[in-house]
């Protein structure tokens, strides 16, 4: 597991280092394209690379025309596989929080609910990474009322906190109607 995380981190840093080179290459192609469109001579520093750059310009489509940052692309592979979501709570959840998490399990397709017990969050995250779970949702409570939701996209991806106010369970809505 540690080797896998190290490999993922190394790949991320390598792709990040390539972004500068891709940006320079893009600028060269842009300058050649502008010179060709305006009928101006090719800049002298690009004359040796002109033929290769022209070939690449002809082959480029809309997706490759502008280089993309890998930082903005954490969800690029989201459509390639079905998401697996793990729902868990604070260490000693109350009955209303447990009921709320059961309702969330119905809301999110392909999700699993796990009783946290005494596990530390770092252990849960490592377990999720090893089982290829794509998202971790942690639900917090204050005095028996759900008040917070932490959504973490794994393995590298962003984490968001959502505050919950005036939570009403579905089973309470059906009883009072």
From TrEMBL:
PROSITE patterns xrefs: BRIX (PS50833)
Record protein name field: Brix domain-containing protein
Alphabetized InterPro entries for the sequence: Brix (IPR007109), IMP4/RPF1 (IPR044281)
Single annotated GO MF: rRNA primary transcript binding
Domain called Brix: residue spans: 83-177
GO biological process: rRNA processing
Superkingdom: Eukaryota
GO cellular component labels: Mpp10 complex; small-subunit processome
């Amino acid at each position: 597991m540690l080797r896998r995380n190290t490999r993922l981190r190394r790949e991320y840093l390598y792709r990040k280092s390539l972004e500068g080179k891709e940006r320079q290459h893009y600028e060269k192609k842009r300058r050649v394209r502008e010179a060709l469109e305006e009928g101006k001579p090719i800049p002298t520093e690009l004359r040796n690379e002109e033929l290769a750059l022209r070939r690449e310009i002809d082959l480029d489509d809309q997706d490759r025309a502008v280089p993309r940052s890998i930082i903005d692309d954490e969800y690029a592979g989201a459509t390639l596989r079905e998401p697996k979501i793990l729902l868990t709570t604070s260490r000693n959840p109350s009955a209303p929080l447990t009921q709320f998490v059961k309702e969330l399990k119905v809301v999110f397709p392909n999700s699993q609910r796990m009783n946290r017990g005494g596990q530390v969050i770092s252990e849960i995250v490592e377990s999720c990474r090893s089982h290829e779970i794509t998202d971790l949702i942690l639900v917090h409570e204050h005095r028996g009322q759900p008040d917070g939701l932490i959504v973490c996209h794994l393995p590298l991806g962003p984490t968001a906190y959502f505050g919950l106010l005036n939570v009403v369970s579905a089973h309470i809505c059906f009883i009072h109607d």
